[in-house]
Amino acid sequence: MLCSHVDQSLQRFLDWCFEAGIRAGSLDVRSLRGRGRLLQATHELSEDVEILYVPADAIISEGVASQTYQASHWSLGVAHRLVEEDCLGRESRFQPYVQLLLEGEPHDLQIMERLPGCAGSLAREKVKLRALHIAELCAAMPTCTADRAARAVYAVDSRTVYSHPAQARALVPFFDFVNHSACPNARWTMDSDGSLRLVTTTRVEIGEEVTISYDSIPNARLLVTYGFVLDGEGPHRSVDLNLPFGKLPDTLDEGGPDAKQPVQVQILGNGTLRRRAPLVPLLHNLCSRSETVLAEHLAKQVAVELEQWQAADAKEDSRLTLLIDMSVEVLQSFLERILSWIQAADAKPLMSALGPPEEAVTGHSTSDDSQDS
Ligand SMILES: C[S@@+](CC[C@H](N)C(=O)[O-])C[C@H]1O[C@@H](n2cnc3c(N)ncnc32)[C@H](O)[C@@H]1O
After folding, report:
1. Where in this chain does the record put each SET domain (predicted)?
2. Sheet containing 179-180: which strands, arranged edge to edge?
């Protein structure tokens, strides 16, 4: 395993990886401003080649301790395991890995808390959840300081993988240097014994970064969970929108689902709706001519949120600038689509006018390779 610009704890970690049976002969660890540590190919690699193998006993997975937290959040099980290993100090067989993991500073959620819409509420929820988890970890392990607990919670939040087939949540050394891309060149799988393999999905040139897809989530979620946003096209170019409906004019009083609950929809980069299903009950609850009522209500709500995004302060943070610009563009094109449907008043049902063409719905395949968020 080669490594450039190594610091001491990274070198100790890499030596430990070798002893633990982690095989990554054609990968190098690099650091890049704005991307942190990352994996880079040291050889030209063909498609479908295994480039990393991490044996099960080198992986920190959800342990017996997680039983304590069954009624609570999934991440506490893994965080508990991590803090337990940290408390063992040099006695822990994962010590170099644990040390490296707990060096990571949690990213600042404060500047995100004032963002409009779902982005701001996600950040505020995350702040509350982090505080609860830190308190729970400290209460469960009196030798654990709030700072250690905060670092553990952050490491778990941003680095845990979940394998559906193996039904396992885990912190996987070396593999967790892999960054996310909307067009990844690798995917991972977990064997039934809990070991992990990383395999190329395309040809990879020498020096090229190896990436996977963590998830197909909007930029606001990427920012709150992982601390970065992506430019360009892809599933990240979308906005989650909470729509409060209350009582619409022309709503049927009897029968039909409750239209009072706010519903969440997702708007894609081309201004179409990805998830239309939450709006369907509302349509059922309206009188026949009331598609227009719904469209007008939608337009009003979107205009309100658009105004909030236009007034949002990026606080000289380039990630926030990108998120704000993208949210404005997405909401604007969605609003234009609704308004032109209202103006045209054509026979096309509102939901199909707002929905995406088939290929846009399909999204992006993540197979086993979705990280928890
Ligand atoms: C699983 S770790 C990946 C390795 C990480 N770069 C490191 O330094 O250890 C996930 C973190 O990597 C960073 N990251 C991943 N993909 C990124 C990307 N496309 N752009 C910028 N940062 C990214 C984010 O800080 C994220 O929370």
Report:
1. 47-215
2. 2-3, 27-32, 36-41, 209-212, 179-180
Compute how many other C-beta atoms are within 10 angstroms of the C-beta atom of residue 165.
11
What would the pLDDT profile of 219-263 be if each residue is shown by its tens digit? 999 999 999 999 999 999 999 999 877 666 555 454 444 556 778
The closest-lying atom of ligand 1 relative to the alpha carbon of residue 177 is 4
Say whether both 271 and 215 belong to one domain.
no
Order of strands, sheet of 161-163, starting from the edge strand that comes earlier in the sequence: 60-61, 168-171, 161-163
CA–CA dist 191, 147 (Å, integer): 34
The CB of 37 under 6 Å from ligand 1? The reply is: yes
Residue 77 is part of a domain; what is its CATH number? 3.90.1410.10
The residues, ordered by sequence, that sit 6+ positions from 222 with a Cβ below 8 Å of its Cβ are 180, 214, 228, 229, 230, 236
Select from 3, 226, 237, 369 the residue to mutate for testing ligand 1; criterion: most ligand atoms less than 8 Å from CB: 226
Residue 226 Cα: closest atom of ligand 1 = 27
Q: Are residues 245 and 185 part of one domain? A: no
Classify residue 31: in a domain, yes or no. Answer: yes
Residue 47 lies in a domain: yes
**pTM for the full predicted model:** 0.89
Given ligand 1 and candidates 9, 180, 216, which is best to mutate, with the most ligand atoms within 8 Å of its CB? 180
